[in-house]
Design goal:
It is built from 19 helices and 10 strands. Helix 4 packs across helix 9 (171-185), helix 5 packs across helix 9 and helix 12 (257-265) packs across helix 16 (310-321). The longest helix is centred in the last third of the chain and has 25 residues, at 372-396. The protein has helices at 15-28, 52-61, 72-75, 79-93, 108-120, 123-134, 139-153, 161-167, 171-185, 214-222, 235-244, 257-265, 269-272, 280-289, 296-303, 310-321, 345-354, 366-369, 372-396; strands spanning 3-8, 32-38, 41-42, 46-47, 66-70, 98-103, 191-196, 335-341, 359-360, 409-411. It is an alpha/beta fold and 413 residues long. Strands 1, 2, 5, 6, 7, 8, 9 and 10 form an 8-stranded mixed sheet that branches. The chain has 3 domains: 3-104 and 176-200 and 240-250 and 330-411, Rossmann fold, CATH 3.40.50.620; 122-169, no CATH class; 253-321.
Length: 413
């Protein structure tokens, strides 16, 4: 039996995700699919539009066999930490043979080549990076420019400035490079495959495009227009979105405006830098720009500068809101089971036998299964979910089960 792993957000699960899942099984010959999925807050530093249990149901009914939560501190981190934590969980399960990810380029060799350069960090690349950072560029832009300069200077075989610049500006390609770095860094036995993205691009907001993106779907839901969702959405996704609409979702960042304002107003500027992704510059701008009038979205925009990207700001503010500190050991991971098909219980038995990662099925058992650092990480997940659920109560007057009573989503076969 072969198993393929996928690292995802499914915010929400759409036709492109279904295509990837089906292709992953077809290309690898895998009979089981394990998904490591972000919980209620995602990598762009925003809340998921619908909660993690609903998204778990979407994944299981469309072919996933086991869904494991990516801890919130990694789910909302940089591409590097997000990818490493996801790969680490899959690797430590002990039964995953492949990892499959989508990319705009669809070229695993090219992604691997770039990953190797970034892992090795040759002296000439380091010099280029320092030069670009000194020029005032943000780290992502400086790294891209340094890579391009390095490849030009080394006259690397197949180097084409235009194609590589496009590759390095595409979000799924960037994540793909980080997945390859993580596999190599961990010396993992997992084999990687990539599937070229089909249909709409990552940022396309046109709902009428084939395989509409999650961005487009969220845009429709932002405007409270459930009935404009495309007919080609996967069946269970559309059913869950219809059932839960105005009961448990949609949840938006602006819903947390008052909570954010309170947290920021109660925190001294020097204390802000103790949170992940908050630099002294960002802390200073937060203090200077904190006013009553701004929504969460508007406040983020007011902090943006040439050096401070909107993504960095989003993550910094979310980490303040969720009290996620800078100092966390990325090697501390566990397998929080969000859901599984009954036919996948053999996977759980195998992981338990391998004993490389603690598996949490019942939240009440977490403390006895985890070491102190892992348990502190896990408590962040619990607090983040309780905060998200409180927003559901406040907005829709629906009271979800708390983390101690909910239990995994189980799909009977």
């Amino acid at each position: 039996m072969k198993t393929v792993g996928i690292i995802a957000e499914y915010n929400p699960f759409h036709q492109g995700h279904l295509y990837q899942l089906e292709q992953a099984k077809l290309l690898t010959g895998a009979t089981k699919v394990v998904v490591v999925m972000s919980g209620n807050f995602v990598q762009r530093g925003i809340p998921a539009i619908i909660d993690k249990y609903a998204r778990t149901r979407m994944a299981l009914t469309h072919g996933a066999d086991l869904v494991i939560e990516l801890p919130v501190s990694y789910a909302t981190a940089s591409a590097e930490a997000f990818a490493y934590a996801g790969i680490s969980i899959l690797d430590r399960l002990g039964f995953v043979d492949y990892v499959c990810f989508g990319s705009e380029c669809g070229d695993i060799k090219m992604l691997t080549q770039l990953a190797d350069i970034l892992l090795e960090e040759p002296p000439s690349y380091q010099q280029e990076l320092k030069k670009e950072l000194k020029s005032g560029l943000s780290f992502p832009k400086a790294r891209t420019k340094a890579l391009l300069n390095y490849m030009r200077l080394k006259d690397i075989n197949g180097y084409n400035p235009a194609s590589f610049e496009l590759l390095l500006s595409s979000p799924n390609n960037i994540l793909g490079i980080e997945y390859m770095k993580a596999i190599r860094k961990r010396k993992s036995r997992i084999n990687a495959i990539t599937i070229k993205r089909q249909g709409a691009n990552y940022h396309d907001s046109d709902i009428s495009l084939p395989n509409a993106s999650a961005t487009a779907i969220r845009s429709v839901l932002t405007n409270d227009d459930l009935f404009s969702l495309p007919d080609n959405l996967p069946l269970e996704t559309k059913a869950i979105l219809s059932q839960e609409y105005q009961k448990t979702y949609p949840i938006f960042r602006n819903d947390f405006t008052s909570l954010l304002y309170y947290k920021l107003s109660m925190t001294q500027e020097e204390a802000l830098t103790s949170f992940a992704d908050v630099t002294p510059e960002l802390a200073n701008r937060i203090t200077k720009n904190l006013t009553y009038a701004k929504t969460y979205d508007d406040f983020c925009l007011s902090l943006k500068t040439k050096e401070l990207t909107l993504t960095r700001i989003n993550r910094g503010l979310l980490h303040i809101l969720l009290s996620i500190p800078k100092t966390q050991n990325i090697e501390n991971c566990y397998g929080r089971i969000l859901g599984f098909r009954t036919g996948a219980t053999s996977l759980l038995r195998t992981a338990t036998k391998e004993n490389k990662i603690p598996l949490i099925v019942k939240v009440a058992n977490a403390k006895q299964l985890l070491n102190q650092e892992e348990y502190e990480l896990f408590e962040q997940d619990v607090r983040a979910t309780h905060l998200y659920h409180q927003m559901i109560v406040q907005k829709f007057h629906t009271v979800p089960s708390n983390e101690y009573t909910h239990g995994p989503v189980i799909l009977k076969e």
